[in-house]
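Hi R.,

Here's the chain you asked about this morning:
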Amino acid sequence: MESLACLNCDTVAEGKFCSNCGQKTDTHRITAKHFFMHDLLHGVWHIEKGILFTIKQALIRPGTAALEYISGKRIKYYNVFYLILVIIGLTLLVNNLYDKMQFDYFNIKNEGATSVQGKNIDKFLGDYAKLIIYAFVPLFAFNSFLLFKRKKLNFSEHLIIAGMIFLGVIFINFLFELLYFTDFLNYIDGLSSMFYILTPLTILIYFIANYYRTFRKEYLAGRTVFKLVLFLLLLLMEILVILLIAIGIFTKGTFTLIYN
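And here is the predicted structure, written out as C-alpha cells:
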C-alpha cells in the first residue's frame, strides 16, 4: 500500500485517512464542479442521512441505540443534543404559526395573563422556553442515574440515554403539533380533539416502554416498573420546584398562587 504525507499535518499515512488527524489522503484541488457536485451535495446528504437515522433510532429503539452509542458505535449518529435544539425550535415555530392561523380563521387570540405579575411570568416562560424544555434532559439523566445503579453507567452515559429518549419525546410531540392543523381543514377538523388526548398518552407510553426496555435486564419486571413510577414522581416534583424557584427569582419574590 502506498504511503503518502498528510497535507494537513505531514504525518505519513496509509489508506484513505490519516491516522493522526483523520483527514482524507486523496484530497483534490478545489474546482467549481468538485465543490458543488461533491463537497456541497455530499456534505448535505450525509448530514441529512445522519439526522434521519438518529430520529428513526430515537423513535423505535432509543435505549438500545443509546447503549450502542455508549459502547462506541457513533459514526452513524447525528449529535443528539444539537438535534433536540433543532426540534424544539421547529416546535416553537409551528406553535406560533398555529396561533396566527387560529386568529386568522377563528378570530381567537391567546391573550395570556392580564396582571403585571402574570405578564412577567409569561415573558419568562416565552424568553426561556428552549432552556426550560432542554432542562428535562439532565433531569431524566439524574433520575435514571439515581434509580438504575445496576446498569453501572456514569452520569454522562445516563445523559446520552436521556438525550436519545427525550429526542423521541419531543419529536412525537412535534408530529402531533402538525396534526393539530386539522383544526383548519373542513370535514376532519374534529380530529384535533382526539390528537390533543393522544399526545400525552402516546408520550407517556413511549417514555415508560423505552426506559423499561433499556433497564429491564438488570431488574425483575415488577421492580423495574416500580422504579419507573418513582422516576415519574421525582420528575414531577423536580419540575415543580425548578419552575417555582425560577419564577420566584424572575419576579423578585412577588409571585403568589393567584394567577389571572
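One quick note: The longest helix spans residues 221-250.

Cheers,
M.
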